[in-house]
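cron nightly-structures :: item 1 of 1
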Amino acid sequence: MPQVDSFLDAVERASGGTIAIELVNEWRGAPGSEKGTIDDVANGAVDLAWVGTRAFDLTGETALQALTAPLLVDSNELQQAIIDSDLPARMIDAVHIDGVETLAILAGGLRRPFSVDGPLTNPSSFEGISFQAFESALSSETVRALGAQPTNSGSVTDGSFSGFEKQFSTVMLNGTNVEAPYVAANVVLWPETIALVGSAERLGKLTDRQRAWIEQAAAEAAHNSVHKLPADVANLAAFCAGGGRAGLASASDLAAFRAAVEPVYQRLREDPITAGFLADIDAIKAATASTELAVPAGCTGVAVSASAVQASPDAAADAIDGVYRWELTAADADAAGQREDPRYPLPHVFTMTLADGRWSHHVRDAKQEADYGGGRFTVQGQRLTLIWDHGGSMEFTFDVLPGGNLRVLPTASLIAEDAFVMTTHEWVRIG
């Protein structure tokens, strides 16, 4: 997660590398894992962790619920304004979990409702469906208020639920846009705000200087967290290119959503601390200009199946058919500000095959190698679009160099990680 990587990088810079943090991915990795991770921090099994603030209410701690109150924090501009205010510090002061210290609150992706049978653009479309949400007392309460049944088990593929809350980047990464090709684009249920937490016992053993480094890094990561989020504009474009379709809630639909969750707010305001935090966010929101996510032309109506998106190769695509290779090193990652994933150690050697309008790629790292899939590709002038079979796409501009190598450059829609992987070096033609 880039916001958390930013914290790790900041600790390394602040401490000059004298504080080493071992990153363990997919800790617990099961439903309810966030609450369990908080427990692990409290009992000293884990020194530091990141968890969604949504999970704090499962421990009985409600001081952070205002951050994920339904339909309230609905833009990255608002997230940035909240992060830059004194509200996170006051919220952290109000959190009391034995054995746990909350170091910072980081911005997270905006969670929208995705669905199987049509966009969930009004409360009536939620009525009676099973809707997946990460475990949280407040999230479950909200889903019920909208008329759906909350669940955190099964999958959309096996029919356990027909709607779920996610940010665009996760949907495109997991390929769930194939099974759930609809999104209510202007309905933001809540953000996935993140808390950096630490073991009180372990942090208490640090020197004052070491503790200052950790706190400095946490503050820096919080301030930069919005800028580390994947771009919704690019991921919505990829969602649409993969056959997904976006619905828009009307003004009356949005009013109906707010009316449906009003009982949730009434319950939240019974706690004077939470009531105060809600009022603070309302005031910040009123003073913050936000940009609405624009739906691309042609991305409304009935979703298009992945098979129907396929297109036959054309002459322009045939012209760059071939096998290409390039290598990414640790020095490349350092220069680009990309953190190495210990599961897939550098260097990475990429082999890209373009043939008959289809692309595929193979990756070999320092431990293993595997095929990582692909899809179809199109060429329009000097623009190359790689379209994943599971949905989503990447767009580049390119030049053919002497010897047949390709110089590939990122477009504005490309996320930083894909730009690093695909455009740092020339694609050297090997076949």
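cron nightly-structures :: done
The CA atoms of residues 262 and 406 lie 56 Å apart.
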